[in-house]
Amino acid sequence: MIKNRITFKQLEALVQVADTGTFRKAADMLGTTQPNVSVRISALEDALGLKLMHRDAGSVRFTEPGREVLAVARDVLRAGERLLETAGRHDLVEDRLRLGVGELIAATWLHDFLRVLKAAYPAVRVELTVDLSSELERMLNEGQLDLILANGPFRGGSTDRVALADYAYGWVGAADLVRGLGPNPDLRDIFDVGILTHGKSTGASQALRAHLTAGGFDPARVTHSSSLTSTLQMAADGMGIALLPKRLSAGLAGMVALEGVWVPDSLQFAALFDAGTSAGFVEKAARMAADQAAADLE
Q1: Which stretches of 226-266 are assigned E, i.e. beta strand?
Q2: Structure confidence by residue, pLDDT tens digits, 208-263
Q3: ∠ CA(217), CA(218), CA(222), 5° rounding?
Q4: pLDDT per residue as tens digits for the range 139-168
Q5: Of 147, 105, 98, whose CA–CA distance to 267 is shortest?
Q6: Do 23 and 17 meet the contact criterion of CB atoms below 8 Å apart?
Q7: What is the enclosing helix (H) or strand (E) of 28?
Q8: Could you point out which of 181, 222, 249, 285 has its C-alpha 20 to 30 Å from the C-alpha of 31?
Q9: How far is 214 from 219, CA to CA, in rounded Å?
């Protein structure tokens, strides 16, 4: 029996130092001070009689015994969480979820998902980042986020993935502007009144650029915005016809969809996380997100 010589706080400090790379960042993650993290690690080393890491000019290098202890420490912390789950005491899971989401989700079903997550894990604090999917994936891979709800294509890596939903693109504009295009408008008609869409670096914008170029249109005349909601608002104000995910404008008063015109491939969204380093509730949150995405499309 280890009794109280080794504590969960010591193991949490060890894992956070490993995941963040510094004592300062670990302290930020744990909501404590750098000296406290140092005291916890030192106490763990004293209790085990082992040197777990070398501290060199702010950086950390784990010893071989330290790497072995780290792997077991992760197992112990997960076992503690499973104990609470088995007892039905999700309310005792106290942690922080650094969540990154794409703007489409933020503008549609995000808050429904957050309510479900809060009901399941009331003591988990959510820190939210809304950004481009490429940036979210970078932050996840660098350990700055625990879970992202974003669209591919993804660069890959060791992350785990739960499929969410596919969102088709469509053309939409203010009713008066669309009526002015006459019956059965084509891409030339849309191009003449102005095309609005999101960021130049997105897959959809690159596909649009290639399609316009192949058709003899000048893609430089397309108006891009890094904000989907701003693009939709510009379309609502009659500034052009927007190429956006259909879900974003579904049911919006005063807007009319144009059918039968070329569109890029659908956006494929997924929840990404690292099961090897994240707490068990992170994967459960990813599956809750999948359920919410499915409910949103019903």
Answers
A1: 241-245, 255-258
A2: 999 999 999 999 999 999 899 999 999 999 999 999 999 998 878 889 999 999 99
A3: 110
A4: 998 888 999 999 988 887 667 999 999 999
A5: 105
A6: yes
A7: helix 23-30
A8: 285
A9: 10
Q: Name the β-bridge partners of 97.
A: 126
- Cα 36 from chain centroid (whole Å): 31
- Written as six digits, the tokens of 228 are 């989907």
pTM, full prediction? 0.79
Centroid of chain to Cα 25: 21
Q: How long is the chain?
A: 298
Distance from CA of residue 174 to its chain's centroid? Answer: 31
Alpha-carbon distance of 173 to 179, in angstroms, equals: 10
Residue with tokens 């294509």: 153
Closest to 132 measured CA to CA, from 118, 158, 146, 153:
153
Amino acid in position 61: R
Segment (H or E) for 136: helix 133-141
Residue 130, token pair as written in the block: 């809304």
